[in-house]
Amino acid sequence: MDTWITYSHQNLSVVLKYPSPTPQGNSVNINEQSTPSSFRAHFVSEGSDEIYFEVGRYSNLSVKQVIADFLKDVTGRIENLKISEVEELTYADSPARHLSIHWPGKERVILFIEKEDALYRIIHDPNSPINIQILDTLEFLKNS
Do residues 83 and 99 make contact, with C-beta atoms less than 8 angstroms apart? Predict the structure, then answer.
């Protein structure tokens, strides 16, 4: 991980690492978006499927609302979408929900994690080992 870069943003309250360039030599684009109740950072390797990783932070929204909004969005954009059941689990010592979505040639795993006063949504392609490595570097920061 010598060529991995540390990413953090004050509106996200996490820190993570990602490779730049990727092992295949691709650059990584980061798209940051914010709304009054959310902030997200979306990491995508340019020209390849090596990296597809997103982390978002939501304030003043329930886990049920964020899941419902996510499902409404993806079902409106993606044809032939299959959605798994939502499973409850613990992630990073916090209550969490897990689901996956599949469509021809693609898969995404989505984690919704309740931490302190925020809800985090993590989306990644589980078929890329780099995404799993990025997830392993993710650390939640304490709010001050």
Answer: yes
Q: Does domain 4-140 have CATH number 3.40.50.300?
A: no
CB 46, CB 28: distance < 8 Å: yes
91 three-state secondary structure: strand
Q: Domain segments of the chain: what residues?
A: 4-140
Supply angle C-alpha 48, 139, 128, rounded to 5.
25
Residue range 51-65, pLDDT digits in tens: 999 999 999 888 999
For residue 135, which phi and psi values (nearest 5 degrees)? Answer: -60, -40
Rounding to the nearest 10 degrees, give the CA dihedral for residues 129, 131, 134, 135: -100
DSSP 8-class letter at 7: E
Q: What is the pLDDT of residues 15-30, one digit of tens each?
A: 999 998 999 999 999 9
Residue 52 in tokens: 């597809």
Rounded distance, CA 67 to CA 49, Å? 25
Model confidence, pTM: 0.93
- Locate 119 and state its tokens: 């809800």
